[in-house]
What does this fold into?
Amino acid sequence: MSAVASRVVRLHEYGEPLDVLHEEQIEVAEPPEHRVRVKVIAVGLNPADWELCRGFMPARLPRGIGFDVAGVVDAVGIGVEGVEVGDVVVGFADFLAQPSAGVADVAILQSWVPVPEGLDPVQAAVLPMAVQTAAWTLDAMGVHPGSTVLVHGAGSMVGFAAVQIARREGAQVIATAGPTYAAELAGFGAAVTAYGDGMVARVRALAEGPVEHVLDTPPSHEGTLPALIEIAGNPDRVVTISNHEEARRLGARVNLDIISEPTPFEQLLPPYVTLAAAGQFRIPIAHTYPLDAWRDAVELSTSGRPRGKIVLLP
It folds into this structure.
């Protein structure tokens, strides 16, 4: 094994994504212990990438973006078992420890699972963060068969995953969403209504009883939580993945604060990639871009209305 040349998109200072991200040519080293290196096929972009650019989870600079990666293994670190050069895998880039991440020709992965036969690696690349965030959060909330859960902003990708996961867990699901994915969410078995004026009354009518759990999934937007707390009747029943400051101020909960002993990625993701391969689980892709058009991809993803996952194809 040896270092290989790669285009990477990364930042040397924190700020707004399009201001601080730059494409560079670097050498990506051999994978360290318990890591693999892949030739990237596809990388799914997430709102968390832009929060990282703004200083979330600070680490040594320069650093890269792109958590969700599908690729072909080209080097295996010491201590790695069960995977060989040439295998197609999907997983998380080692974005904290490495000077580059998934938006690159070559990436180091910190965790991964095989991409099964029948699943396009591009479709696989949009699964990891949405599935992990939704599954870990629903589990920490105590959602169980027969419980009623409101997924607010179910057209977001974590929300879209959460509706499917909660329904598979046997929960009654009410989803707030715009028109883009309303019909598909209803097809999963959710009762779907619009957000905005009158949402509280509409959700209560659909629930026909207490709403035990409320999951807030859209990108951060101040002023969202009071209506959700009104629906739940108790701020402790409301969990957000994005409105951290508002939640803590109002007594609601933040998913990062309540997740403990989560299911390891290597155990969590395989059932969902299997379901995706069978056409029984999906995260919608709004647009794919070649790596050279990464600035266009960032612009659409940060617009607030990507209407699905944005994927880069090196």
Notes: The chain has two domains: 4-127+269-313, 129-258. The chain has a mean pLDDT of 95. The CA atoms of residues 72 and 88 lie 5 Å apart. The first strand starts at residue 4 and ends at 11.
